[in-house]
């Protein structure tokens, strides 16, 4: 009996933006736009929320690049990709 190694997924290019801006977060929280005292903290919370969501689901919220390594070509007409949505394949 031969066993096939599981596909290996590597992020090669991380997100260059977040799904929510600090300005939008401040608006939702009713914090004055010119109050910058907590902007660093808001940014950290936004990043942490995105990262947690992406760990808990197969979905990514911003454009990123991944590499999927397979030991062999899958049987059939589909290659299952563990991250969604897929916008292009190279």
Please tell me about this protein's structure.
The structure is a single chain. The mean pLDDT is 91. The longest helix is centred in the middle third of the chain and has 18 residues, at 39-56. 28% of the residues lie in helices and 12% in strands. It has helices spanning 22-28, 39-56; strands at 8-13, 65-69. With 90 residues, it is α+β, with helices and mostly antiparallel strands. The radius of gyration is 18 Å and the shape is elongated.
Brief digest:
28% of the residues lie in helices and 12% in strands. The protein is of the alpha+beta class and 90 residues long.
Distance between the termini: 33 Å
Biggest sheet, strands in spatial order?
Answer: 1-2
Which spans have pLDDT < 50 for at least 5 consecutive residues?
none
Task: Name the shape in a single word.
Answer: elongated
Round the mean pLDDT to the nearest integer and report it: 91
Structural class: alpha+beta
Helix content: 25-40%
Q: Beta fraction of the residues?
A: 5-15%
Major sheet size, sense and barrel closure: 2 strands, antiparallel
Order of helices and strands: EHHE
Over all CA atoms, what is the radius of gyration? 18 Å
User: What is the total tally of β strands?
Assistant: 2
What's the helix and strand layout?
Elements lengths: L7 E6 L8 H7 L10 H18 L8 E5 L21
Antiparallel strand pairs: 1-2
